[in-house]
Amino acid sequence: RQSSGSSGINAEYGCVMHVIIVPGTHHPIKKKSRWHNKIYWNLVLISAVFGLLTIYFIVIINGAEQQTALHSHNEDVIIVNWEGSNEDSLDISQKNIRIIPPDDTKTAVNDSLSQNENEGSRRNEEPIRQVQQEAVNDSEQAVGLGEVKHDGQENIVRDGSLPDTGSDGEFAELSPQWPLPAASDDPHLYRIPGEDVVTSISPKILNRRMNSVRESMRTSWARYKSCAWGSDKLHTDACHGSTWFGLGLTIIDSLDTMFLMGMKKELAEADKFIRNINYKTGANNVNIFEITIRVLGAFLTMFNFTHEDIYLAKAVELGDILIDSGAFETSSGVPLSDIDLSTGKSHRPTCPGCSRHSSLSEVTTLQLEFNELTRLTKNNKYKAASDRAMWTIINSLPNDHLPKIYVDVKSGKTSGTLTLGARGDSYYEYLLKQWIQTGAQRFQDEYNAAIQSIKDKLVYSSRRGLTYIAEITESGKVNHKMDHLVCFLPGSLALGTLHGCPSWHLDLGEEIIRTCLEMYHTKSGLAPEIIKFDSTSRLYISRPDEFSLLRPETVESLFILWRVTRKPKYQAWAWDIFSSIERSAKTPNGYSSMNRINNDSPIRKGDMESFFLAETLKYLYLINAPDDIIPLQRYVFNTEAHPFPIKPSDFTA
Fold this sequence. Notes:
Layout: E1 7-10, E2 15-18, H1 34-66, E3 77-81, E4 96-100, H2 105-119, E5 171-172, H3 203-228, E6 233-235, E7 240-242, H4 249-253, H5 255-260, H6 264-274, E8 286-287, H7 288-306, H8 309-324, E9 338-340, E10 345-347, E11 358-359, H9 360-363, H10 367-377, H11 381-395, E12 406-407, E13 414-415, H12 425-438, H13 441-457, E14 459-461, E15 467-469, E16 471-472, E17 478-479, E18 481-483, H14 489-498, H15 503-518, E19 530-533, E20 539-542, E21 547-548, H16 553-565, H17 569-584, E22 586-587, E23 590-591, E24 594-595, E25 603-604, E26 607-608, H18 610-622, E27 635-637, E28 643-645
Parallel strand pairs: 3-4
Antiparallel strand pairs: 1-2, 5-20, 6-7, 6-26, 8-9, 9-10, 11-12, 12-13, 14-15, 16-17, 18-19, 19-20, 21-24, 22-23, 24-25, 27-28
């Protein structure tokens, strides 16, 4: 950087000017031999090359020092000095932007460089993250988000033993550097510098994200309409639909998502279909739980949003079919699992290998919907039927208040594995939400007792600080595995604290959500169906579990955690997940569930589940929306993300 006869530095811009003297009319030179001329021109050429290289390297060095910018080939990161930066002028469409206070910039650059060297590349591309300057205590409120308007939205109120880890073919590790160091000493992918001093993400960026999610919803709807209209779900690879209920499930399940997003044209298309639904033409093996949470729940929500009689009429018609099917007429009141819509008769599962028992989560996840139907119709038969099933389970609980996943419909007693994953999850969710919905104190008491036992018996921590919920087999053996389904729990824990549950519930939820986010540390950025921990507490994925259905549980919890804690890091992490879905699951015909998600080239499964539209995209939208759109103090979501109003005075506690 020192000045010389042939070069100088512009102090203002930090650029190098390399001056080369060449022959000309004003600089006469004695004629020399051809040999001398060759030497002369070679020296000129060498000097020119040296000058260009000098300019290149000095610009790079000065750019890093004076603009404080770091480009990472692994993470595509830009770290920007806060002073003089205008976040709204930054091109954030392809970059992971961290806005960091001036004093922290050098540390952040060094941390990022160290992270790249130690961790290697986890993703092909990093989505957006922003950290602003002003530090706040956890108890302080975030900066207000302002108003974001959309058409039609202004008035919305809103099993087995641990594997031999030496077998290379048995599992896929999430990252070459797993297990990760503990969060306290390593700012890995989801522990960015300054994450706990975030104050806000600008309304303009939030609005842009909402628009992006809405466009994904429009794309999903358009592809479903062109390939699978009237079918229950879309197969993206073949561009055709498949039947499960025989009712056009994707259309029904998507209704309130489109309403919240102001998609009037698409709602009008759906309305014509809804008016012609005939339940008697439905399938002969329909799960009562599934049709309740998806269809009945959607119609109830749409009636509350629009007050259009067609939605309540369809809800009442379906409710009567379920009650009159005989499903609840068992000696215990615990309903049978399935119904033949064509005959209106209920029955046990008929699928090969299916248990003859009902599932815990299925028989205890009807209550919000039946309660709401009773509230709207003033007919207590719906609530009475679902209540009987719920109280049968509660009154048969062991001392730890933790039921197993299979329920005998004759006695109401449970057996099998103790888990918060498949077949067990939403029992705990609906304990809490029935209390919120109806005000019945015993539900809160049972919920608090269950969470305490979960903490005492099922909460484990890996050697690297990941908190997870294990399972216990009927023989008492602990299985160190956790379904992605369990990721509903952080949201429920946070929601409970909002309504008066102990504050340590929220602390536990914020620990578990980190483990849920670790599930997304795959090459595709998508989470597997199940993660496991080996005998050394290392997290891994078994090959059979290395697929993603684009489930909603993690983004659901992120949404609730954001609303409860006001920590915008939860918004940023949700955007990470959305960006990974866009990058890895989007196809010409919609969004596909994926196999081999930790491969460089994941394989499409081809199904676009209705819950992707009903739940995943809805929560991704709402986490960026103003809080007065479905406020959690006034609405409670059913397990399919259909919100019901909280009106405990309408129920007898």
